[in-house]
Amino acid sequence: PLRRARVAALRVPQITLAFWVIKGLSTALGESTSDYLVVTIDPVLAVTIGFGAFVVALAVQLTRGHYLAWAYWLTVVMVGVFGTMAADVVHVVLGLSYAVVSLACAITLAAVFWSWHRVEGTLSVHTIDTWRRELFYWAAVMATFATGTAVGDLAAITFHLGYLGALLAFAVALVVPGIGFRFWRWNPILAFWVAYVLTRPLGASFADWTGKSVGRGGLGWGDGPVSLVLALAIVALVGWLTVSRADVQVTSQDAVTEAESA
Fold first, then answer.
1. Which among 196, 77, 204 has a CA at the least distance from the CA of 140?
2. Which among 41, 84, 89, 234 has the fewest CB atoms less than 10 Å away?
3. Chain mean pLDDT for the chain
């Protein structure tokens, strides 16, 4: 299928600096918003609202047929909020340790990647030009958010690194795939997904460090104010991308060659 001379609109953005900045902000927003909602309103209602918003955002994104910055990043934010809630619910309601939840999420993510590669032959984000590939993509995104949430809590709480310690640890870890790609000739697809997973606990640790009380190891700014600031930053950046179209991938023709070489 990769060798067909097909030109189709891609449904996800080009990987630029703006992509990584908004991705980091969205992961932090997902953490702070989830934590704010579950203590402000009934937790069951909060999870229901989070799931409903995620479904609506995903439906909007899937029906676009091509990349639109606002639709794509709205879906990412909703994945962040609901993915955080899902991982936390598994820990709190089922009483499973963060280590078990992290392992379960990692296995789920591996299963998604395996299925995706077996069906499509590549995990490259530069080939997301069909409805089926986009479904695999969003399944992987959801699994990365859940995995990152659990791993972040594992590092901060179970391993007693604290929010700041976890933030620094994941910031250092995030440099590894960049170095691996630049100097060690890592496969670009592997480097991308490793970095993508690591941005989740990095962003979540930042949100917890800034939002949680001083007594819990945070700065005490509050989950609500942190969520508001993060949301405004995302809106501003997505607005700029919508106008500039700086991250739009026009066709999948070049991606075919890249995927074959990878």
1. 196
2. 41
3. 88
User: Both ends of the chain: CA-CA distance in Å?
Assistant: 15
Q: Are 232 and 41 in contact (CB under 8 A)?
A: no
Query: Which range has the worst mean pLDDT, 33-47, 86-100, 207-221?
Result: 86-100
Residue 4, CA distances (Å) to 74, 79, 175, 250, 257 in order: 32, 32, 36, 17, 11
Contact indicator for 147, 105 with CB cutoff of 8 Å: yes
pTM as predicted? 0.88
CB burial class (10 A; 0-12, 13-18, 19+) of residue 214?
Answer: exposed
> Which among 81, 57, 61, 80 is positioned nearest to 12, based on CA atoms?
61
200 to each of 81, 98, 126, how far by Cα in Å?
A: 12, 15, 21
**CA 25/CA 227 separation, integer angstroms:** 10
